[in-house]
Protein 1
Amino acid sequence: MKSKKNYCPKILSLLFIYIPIIIIGQNSDKNTITFKSPSKNFKDITIQSHKGLPRLGDLYFHRGVTPPVNPNAYKMLIEMKYLTAIYADMDKNKITKTGNDNDLKVNNSIASQQHLLQLVTKLGTESFLKKYFCDTSNTTLPCTFTDANGIRKNIGRWGDSRNEFQQMRSYKAVVKNHLNELQNWSRTFFKDDQEIAYFVTQSMVVGKYDFKQKGYWLTGMGSGRFLIQKSQFSAYTDNEKKLKNQKMFFSIPPSKAKELNLQNRTPVFLVFKIKVIPKVSIPTLYFDYSFELDHKIIEIYKDIALTNEIGEINIDNAIFKY
């Protein structure tokens, strides 16, 4: 069990990492899912999807091609649902400034206030930010929240101001007017404390085409990035355990192999249907995930956009080697 001394760094490091829910924008052509905001004060949340389910792990971004998404807001709203203890210790009357390794309640208050600040600045609409995050003491610069490329700027202070009185007004007003509606929205995610999703990871061709066995050797499950990673995989069967660290054989006929022309170290992309389960460690309250396979078939694609499926592997019948 971790000591209280290590608690605050764990929580604060969490804060800075780059359903029933109403789906209003699911579009198989755009490969996105949109979760409708319950309030005019906050933007809808859009994330990438695959076959109608959330896409986790390796995402795909191509400026001007892939539609805008805000996955970090999705991630942080789920965190809000499960970091209930730090929010229970939040001082709602003033900003907590100084932490103490021996005072868990103070550290919880700091962590929850920072988490809330980042969440509202990611989710807030333009009118919301103008109401709570315009520095009225600065009359020389316009109040803007996006950079020249239209990307939302990071806001590091309540009220976006160095003035402590303005910071306090901003913080207390947001807590009073909007904390409950955000917490209520967060509870609609991960219904039954789990989520079915797809985990996308990069693999790689190892060596040349094997004419004897008719196929390629591929590296196993890749690390992943968004929300979950390979280290969080709960492997139960022998083959699932091998999937973590061993090469696996991808059977494909010579005619198809000639068409694909895969070379040594050519990247390919593995897609796993999974069940994601949130984990909260008490008393440290460090938030994490674990996941397990929800389907035996591994889909294999030539491209990270997942438009060119080249085959599949059944995990039960898979062949592995070091």
Protein 2
Amino acid sequence: MKIIFCIFFFTILSCNSSTRYISDRELNNLVNSANTKFFQTKDREVLLTVYKKLKCNKNFKKEGLTGNNSLPIIALFMNLNKYDELEKLLIEDENINTYYRKNTLNVVRYLKNFNRDKVKSQSYINENINRITDSIRKSPKDSLLYGDYFAMRMFLNGKAKTLVEIDSMQAVNKKYSEIFYESILKDAVKEYPDDYLPVK
């Protein structure tokens, strides 16, 4: 659930025929640094500068999202509200785990449509909830699936109501430890960026 951003500073050069391409590692460091600085300062220019550098990475230019760069780049596009571009990248992606890709794609579609058609946008989250619930049924020992489940509930109901739902589960389901409920499920909800959450 938690996306941990590492803090690195790199000099950002413009990408053209006379400059070198950026390696996957450099790109990840640049994007992680930009995402971290954005959460600290809310300065979109930091994000836009790195966004312009994506074409300097051969793998991104050729393949789009890959297993190595997917999380930080998805966060970059989310922070920039570039939902159309991110939707296209996720539709075309063949590298990310199908379960994760479909869930992320529906979250992007939810955010993209929220202010235009709330019923349609919520249908994407409900589709995710159905997929996650089915995964829990098939893999009942995979406790981290509950993190995905409550993340989707958070989109529909906001953080406060979702924390109450976790409390309700904790009261009746003693299969998991207090640490699981408090430090994994609840912390993930509390720390989720409000910028990605139309329902506060």
Protein 3
Amino acid sequence: MQLEKSNRKISVKFENSLEFAEYANAVPANNWSKIRDDYSWCGGSFEDAMEQVKHGNPNRVKKLFDGLNVIEALINEEKVGEIRDVTGEYFDVADFLSGEPEVFRRDEIGQQKPVVPVYVNFGMLGDISPDIIENRGCAIVALVDELQSSGFIVDLRIVKGTQYGYDRVYTDIKVMTNPVDLDEIAFLVANPLTQRRLWFACLEHIYEVSNCSDHGYGSSIEYDLNDIFESGLSGFYFTSSSHRIFSESNYITLEAAKAHILGMVEQFKSSASQIILG
């Protein structure tokens, strides 16, 4: 873990989700992040968070991927009158997300698929429901899984920006890729426990307090995209819920989440140097 402070800016970087969880768990047992009892809003207890980040949650992940199957089933619906180009000359978004292999057979032998950055800001304000967080996360898991299954190299980063008083606090959690651990990213991006237990505890740890209520645990802000995206590189950036582009309606159901992701992919394929916000 790296912690840097300068000019009211705090940067904390974790090598993996377990390091993130252990840093959070180091706060005292009577800290607010550990004892608050509104489990439905938090996604469970602090003990649940530690158990799931270390060992996973098979029942919850099954539910998540059952939802993912719903998205895939909808994506796989054929358009009336649609004719597929079996040679791969025609790039179809539905096939792209559903993992149809023939779409991606045009590469020469030995040619490597491009790297696709997918950066996720997990900052969700307190009025965002756990269902919205889960549907959004499910859509992100679907996108990452289909990109990876189709041979693309996914550069995945889980981030959070926070305005806490006069300070800006930036959190960055590395996730192993090639292959991406979908169980791990499902916990980080589709579970309220990530922010409302573990990250709250990290903020308490940074400021060495038992309760950050003086500033309400801060307000979500965005990363500077110039800092995380290489110049001219196309990719996906899922904003915090504070961003003007964020809309709960995009994730109100799995069907809505699917449609939103398809729209993002349409934008992605139309430009070689565009950051797609979602």
Protein 4
Amino acid sequence: MKSIVLLLSFLAVAWCTPKGLHGELHQNNTNGPEIEKTMTYGTAITHYVSTPMAFTDAEMYCRRHGTNGHLVSIHDAKLNKLVLHLVKHTRGKSPHSTWIGGMRFLKTENFIWTDGSKWDYNSWLPGEPNNLQQKELCSEMYTADYKPGLWNDADCTKKNPFVCFY
């Protein structure tokens, strides 16, 4: 039941049009207490937020703090690498993992992006997603030295830093 409520809240905003990702990477430090670093990629803005939150809280934060904001959806290896770079080069030591915007669709094996864009790329760690104990419905990127840039499915109540995409 909890996953249905989570899914319905995300589908309610799935009408958002995904942004095109073209251009060069530009990094800017921000003065905000939570947004640690900002990257622009074409017309998109990506923010790394170091304050750990549960997946749903992180998604809601992204929606409140930017036009058409969501947790980042990753559609190619270049953006995956840029998101990893953003997290790893903020405050020296990076966290073990960071939320990205993928979540299981109705407890199936299929994943969707919270922004409603097409799931056309993934970078799962071998053996993942495994839905351990039927509780791993959300996606995180490993950002520390252990398998950096690879993804894992995790319990959505876990608190991680996260990356917003506007």
